[in-house]
Amino acid sequence: MSYERQEAQPQTEKQYVFNIVGEQVALGPVHLDLTTPLHRWLNDFEVTLLSGDPLMPKSLEETRAEIEREAGGERQNHVGFIIYEHTTMRMIGIAELRQINHIHRNATYGILIGEKDCWHKGYGTETTRLILDYGFTVLGLHNVVLHTYSYNIAAQRAYTKAGFRVVGTRREAWCWGGQFYDEIIMECLSSEFESINKPIIQLPGSK
Questions:
Q1: For residue 110, how far is the Cα from the chain centroid?
Q2: Element (H, E) at 37
Q3: How many CA atoms lie within 13 A of 58 on its CB side?
Q4: What's the burial of 91, exposed, middle or buried (CB within 10 Å: 0-12/13-18/19+)?
Q5: Nearest 5 degrees, angle CA 201-CA 18-CA 80?
Q6: pLDDT score for 13
Q7: Residue closest to 159 by CA, chosen among 84, 51, 58
Q8: Whether pLDDT at 195 is above 90
């Protein structure tokens, strides 16, 4: 596994560029071909319920406008990647570092696996490790935080495997159907990540 700009050989009509290639997933830059699958994911409430996104209809035009801003570099202090399934090279989700602060060396992590047949296969865990490694090694971050919810047990397990740990709980801060759920705050430090993960991105001269 390496951090190299490279062309893979996807089993699709189009070939995409990948920045980071892991064992199960590959990560590449955001482009307009993401519009159709992302529009479908964001309108699937079963998907957005787990990601914490609003359970509201989203137009194709609105989705495309957001992707254009992302692909055009208009979103400041933000780095996003498309997640591809390694075996098929189809787009299955997105992962991003938001609110990047280079002075205090921190950021917020977010991930959405939109293809439900790709859930519970370890893709989220590997993607999270890849993004953390990128954030710590390339961007020089020290603290990455995320927010999830008490009903999303699978996500908490994936984040823990990747290096995150629970640092706080905002009690009964999320409400669906009259039922209250806790908001779970997790974070990972660069020092903690390095102690449990072999670096995925190898810099020149490193061993």
A1: 5
A2: helix 35-42
A3: 20
A4: buried
A5: 80
A6: 57
A7: 51
A8: no
pTM over 0.85: yes
Length of the chain: 207
Domains and CATH numbers, the chain: 2-142 (3.40.630.30)
Between 145 and 21, the more confident residue is 145
Could you report the per-residue pLDDT of 78-124, keeping only the tens digit for each?
999 999 999 999 999 999 999 999 999 999 999 999 999 999 999 99
Return the active site residues.
159
The residue to which tokens 């709980």 are assigned: 169
Name 109's Cβ contacts closer than 8 Å, sequence gap at least 6. Answer: 95, 96, 97, 98, 128, 131, 132, 135, 144, 145, 146
42 Cβ contact partners less than 8 Å away, ≥ 6 residues apart: 48, 53, 58, 63
**Distance (Å, whole) CA 156 – CA 142:** 21
The Cα–Cα gap between 69 and 75 comes to 6
Average pLDDT, the chain: 89
